[in-house]
Write a structure and sequence with these properties.
- By secondary structure, the chain is of the alpha/beta class.
- It has a single domain, classed as Ribonuclease Z/Hydroxyacylglutathione hydrolase-like (Metallo-beta-lactamase, Chain A, 4-Layer Sandwich), CATH 3.60.15.10.
- It is built from seven helices and 19 strands.
- It has an eight-stranded mixed beta sheet with strand order 8-7-6-3-2-1-17-18, with helices on one face. It has a seven-stranded mixed beta sheet with strand order 9-10-11-12-13-14-16, with helices on one face. A two-stranded antiparallel ribbon has the order 4-15.
- α4 crosses α6.
- It is globular, with a radius of gyration of 20 Å.
- The mean pLDDT is 94.
Length: 315
Amino acid sequence: MITTLIAHACLLIQSRDTTLLTDPVFFDYLWEECNVHCPSIDLDLAKLPKVDILSISHRHQDHFDVRTLAYIAGSADILAPDAVVLAPRDEILLEVLAKLEFKNVVVVEDFKTLEIKGLTLTPTPSLNKQDYFPEHGLLVHDGEVTLWNQVDTIISPDIIKYMQRLYGQLDFAHVRYLPLLEGNFCFHNPLELPMEEYSSYLKAASACRPKFAVPGSAGFKYRDEFRFLNQYSFPTTQEQFLRDLADFCPDIESEVFYPGDRAVITREGVEIQKAASEFVKIKENDGHEVEFKPVSEVPPIRTQTQDKTQHEKEW
């Protein structure tokens, strides 16, 4: 099995003749045009392998990007003719997929296993009480190895036990690592690493105890006039998380994982191939722009309205 990071939470997972694409976001801008990919990517869609299974984890716009989905639906080059679309039981999400005329949409449920094109797929639940809509992680088993994509899910010891009962020790996992401080600056909330949440990610990874883990589901920054929020929103890095994970659970092998990187997963082990993808690569390594500097100066916030009369009305 091979998993390639395209960007943020978008993965291309390949096993034998089957290709699975998760949470596709091909274009900037994200999140109502507030964010862009970080690091920025160069994605050659003409080289993207035909997708047999499209999996959407939940409705957040950095995972459910309507513009990308509209592009996929209108293209004859992305999905295989008999492709299957996996989606949670979310009325809004399912309505959008129907409007875009996606075919073969399968609604997934917690721990209800699906057999599709040689893959055994098991959605894992989330205990996120902040959101009222469903979201899922995904276990992918191809008869030889098992991969888990945690995405944004919050898990418990019981969930982990059930995963291990189904598949034993996981061969590879994309795990949560970054507690986002979105909105903390604007609402005068603490600008520091939230240790309880951060430690819960380390505990979850330790309890799952995969043979190999990479940090997942975090790869964007604020753009242009919102740029100042970058210094307040991302309180740790992949490198720091893996140092902490090594101290917390040294049995887990790990490596940073950036767009264009591939993980080749076999029974014998995992090989991380840096910048090895044929269809996506880092355009600019601009990770320094999201360095956490919570005491840095805030630049003057200026209106984007250029018309003087309109500006006076708004004022």
